[in-house]
Design goal:
This protein has 153 residues and is an alpha/beta fold. The chain has one domain (12-148): Nucleotidyltransferase, domain 5 (2-Layer Sandwich). The chain has four helices and five strands, in the order βββαβααβα. It has helices spanning 48-63, 77-92, 106-116, 133-150; strands at 12-20, 25-34, 37-46, 70-74, 121-125. A five-stranded mixed β-sheet has the order 3-2-1-4-5. A hairpin with a 4-residue loop joins β1 and β2. The mean pLDDT is 93.
């Protein structure tokens, strides 16, 4: 701490996860920083991948005002590959796959692409359900959101 000011935050670490009860089915998503800083939501007819991507989108929106690098912890290799590698080719082809077919979850991927402009965002893959504390917390809340929606809450 310098001159009574808070120390600068080097980066914010955010776990993201999605859950789906059936695929498709009621789905939930969550981004999680800590027990007092997280958000979750649900959709009635979704897929696990769509909810994973929605968690990324929501985390990027929630952290946009910070001006701090964001490190996203995710248990979906598909989501990480989509955002770190494949989206660039999809974007060049007008958001189409190499074979000309449509990409799945295009709307949220396009939204995430816009949120990544001029941001320092890194991704880290962690094995799901392996005891990683942030991932487990995000997973628990994403599943709870999906279950609450299924129960009509």
């Amino acid at each position: 701490m310098k001159d009574g000011c808070s120390p600068a935050i080097e980066r914010i670490v955010v776990a993201v996860d999605g859950s789906c009860l059936g695929n498709p089915g009621p789905g939930g998503w969550c981004w999680y920083v800590g027990p007092h800083l997280w958000a979750a939501g649900a959709r009635p007819d979704s897929t696990n991948n769509a909810m994973e991507l929605e968690a990324v989108r929501a985390a990027l929106v929630a952290t946009a005002h910070l001006g701090t690098p964001v490190h996203l912890v995710c248990d979906s290799k598909l989501v990480i590959d989509s955002l770190e590698t494949w989206r660039f080719g999809w974007k060049k082809r007008g958001w189409r796959k190499a074979d000309g077919g449509p990409i799945r979850n295009r709307e949220v991927i396009v939204a995430i692409d816009a949120l990544l402009i001029d941001r320092q965002v890194t991704f880290e893959w962690v094995r799901g359900h392996s005891g990683h504390p942030l991932n487990e917390a995000a997973d628990t809340r994403a599943r709870a959101a999906a279950e609450a929606l299924k129960r009509g809450k």
